[in-house]
Amino acid sequence: MASADPFDSALDLLRRLNPKHTTTHLNSLISLAPDLTEDLLSSVDQPLAVRRCRQTGREYLLCDYNRDGDSYRSPWSNEFDPPVDGGASSAAAVPSDKVRRMEVRANEAFDVYRELYYEGGVSSVYFWNLDDGFAGVVLLKKVATPGSSSEGTWDSIHVFEAIDRARFTQYNLTSTVILSLSTNSNNLGDMDLSGNMTRQIEIELAAESDEQQIANIGKLVEDMELKMRNLLQEVYFGKAKDVVGDLRSVGSLSESARDRQAQKDIIGSMGR
Amino acid sequence: MASSLATVESFVEGAPPGELADVINDIKTLTVNEPGLISKLGPAFEKYNEEQFVTTKLPGSSQQVIISSHSALGDGRYFDVESSSSFAFDHTTQKASSVQSYVLEGSQADLAKSTLKSLATYAKEHYPNASYGVYPIENDSKVAIVIVANKYSPNNFWNGRWRSMYIFDPCSGSLEGSLKVDVHYYEDGNVRLLTKKAVSGSVSLGTGAGICKEIAVGEKKYQEELNRGFTSLSEGAFKGLRRQLPVTRQKIEWDKVASYRVGQDIGGGNARR
Fold first, then answer.
1. Residue from the list B11, B241, B272 with its beta carbon closest to the beta carbon of A152
2. Cα–Cα 20 to 30 A to A26, which of A266, B36, B113, B122?
3. Residues of B in contact with A6 (CB under 8 A)
4. A188 shares its domain with A100
5. Per-residue pLDDT band at B270 (split at 50, 70, 90)
6. Are A191 and B124 an interchain contact pair (Cβ–Cβ within 8 Å)?
7. Pair A127, A239 in one domain
8. What is the pLDDT of residue A95?
9. What is the pLDDT of residues B98-137, one digit of tens each?
10. pLDDT tens digit string along B37-58?
11. How confident is the model at residue A268 (pLDDT cuts 50, 70, 90)?
12. DSSP string of chain B?
């Protein structure tokens, strides 16, 4: 394994170490292998930070895609905070007028989506131009109401490309959900159930207008989130619980073995 | 900034059940420029092995023995009551060698042996695959009890570990310790269950059977509580974060949502709440 790639090893480590502290591990890896900084920051999803837009007063989410140096662009005002000097770098970080118009529509649409599914939380959508289409990221974050004995945070990060083809648009979507849950009480002690899961999909759809583009992206994200929510439910509350049951059995093992044998005998006798 | 050694030590400490070798391989690839680093990880491996109750087979035996601070004799040697032996343990390779006879003597020897016997019966009833040990500690004044159960399924991308540790004080009859569960699932993601519960009780009849009865009652209660914890997180925090479907029980009509004019109040969304 001497020829293993350091970037692959870094990703493998992040897949193994406690996902609750991905940001800490990421910083450790960067200090250990500074060459990997850019690759890691652009490919490892971290919980999203929230900021309030100075112009509109609305909250928005921060990620690598709305960042320019130390400034972040608000999807509501299209302004950077703190403001960036005009120049090549900021021009590159802002979508073209046409794509910005779609971005505005997408933010409105996902604001509706957020309210219907999350009943709170924050959403932000960022688009950017591609040579043969456009790309974007749909972000959603919700923190469970504090005050109860259990805590929870949900971060959705959907990165997509919409590539123009002759008669349709090709969508490549990579979705990550970061879900942290924890609870504690005297009888239970501390229980932490945290992690992230990633899924990808590629699909070709007709898109003859900007509205249809946004509707397509909306449907793709909605279907993906439904799928991932079911998957998370299965892994967090099904699989994890089953593994605990595999480690230790609440009931007596000899009794359940006897029951199984008895059942076998009955089935065997019925067959005769 | 933390040193490279401190960084990789923290990676070792955080290795999930059954995945230490994978973590070490990753560290090796990431530190090819500092080839001496791995050889400095001895203390980190020792800490990991003792805290995780790593098990090893004695040469020529199929019985698993546990590595823990309670069974440490110093100089890299550990003892096991069941097999009446002591052995050298290599923390890097996790292999035992140089087995010697180690006959337990002293005032807690009988209690340790009878606890071990009761523990065997109990473990067989509730752990499909567990290792356990009982060790006189603190100048033969107390007894430490350790149970560790591992289940590794790397082909299916999950691994798990249950750890129980108790200290029994024959003078006061107190039984104190902790229960920890660590489950890792990593297919197209990284999900970790980490639990920790401090236990504190007293044993009225300070015999091996009495101690094990207290352990059995406490562990059953804990596992039932843990199962309720899954339910309450699922029904509580998880449901509260994101609905499976909107209140209307219908998916969004994106064609309508996407064609609202920008800036217009999207009344449909609000009215449906």
1. B241
2. B36
3. 29-30, 32
4. yes
5. very low
6. no
7. yes
8. 93
9. 999 999 999 999 999 999 999 999 999 999 999 999 999 9
10. 999 999 999 999 999 999 999 9
11. confident
12. ---HHHHHHHHHHTPPTT-HHHHHHHHHHHTTT-TTTGGGGHHHHHHHHHHTT-EEEPTT---EEE--GGGEEETTEEEETTTTEEEEEETTTTEEEEEEE----STTHHHHHHHHHHHHHHHHHH-TTEEEEEEEETTTTEEEEEEEEEEEEGGGTEEEEEEEEEEEETTTTEEEEEEEEEEEE-SSEEEEEEEEEEEEEE-SS-SHHHHHHHHHHHHHHHHHHHHHHHHHHIIIIIHHH--SS-TTSS---HHHHHTSPTTS--HHHHHT-
Split into its structural domains, chain A has a count of 2
Cβ–Cβ contacts within 10 Å for residue A26, how many? 21
Choose among B1, B15, B220: nearest Cβ to A250: B220
A216: domain CATH number is 3.90.1150.210
- Token readout for A161 is 């490309």
β-strand partners of A123? A140
Is residue A27 domain-shared with residue A149, that is, in the same domain?
no
Nearest CA-CA distance, residue A43 and chain B, Å: 13
Indicate the CATH number of B109-235 among 3.40.50.1820, 3.40.50.300, 3.90.1150.210, 3.40.1440.10: 3.90.1150.210
A126, A236: one domain: yes
A272 in any annotated domain: no
Q: How much of chain A exceeds pLDDT 90, in percent?
A: 81
Over the stretch A23-70, which tens digit does the pLDDT of each residue have?
999 999 999 999 999 999 988 999 999 999 999 999 999 998 999 989
3.30.1140.60, 3.40.50.1820, 3.30.470.20, 3.40.1550.20: CATH of B2-101: 3.30.1140.60
In a domain, A71, yes or no: no
Supply the pLDDT for residue B127: 97
Determine, yes or no, domain membership for A49: no
Interchain pair A247, B160: CB under 8 A: yes
The first and second tokens of residue B111, run together, are 């209690």
Coil vs helix vs strand at A132: coil
Report the chain B residue with the minimal C-alpha distance to residue A14: B190
ipTM of the complex: 0.91
Residues of chain B contacting A222 with CB distance shorter than 8 Å: 251-252, 254
Instruction: Please check whether residue B272 touches A, CB under 8 A.
Output: yes
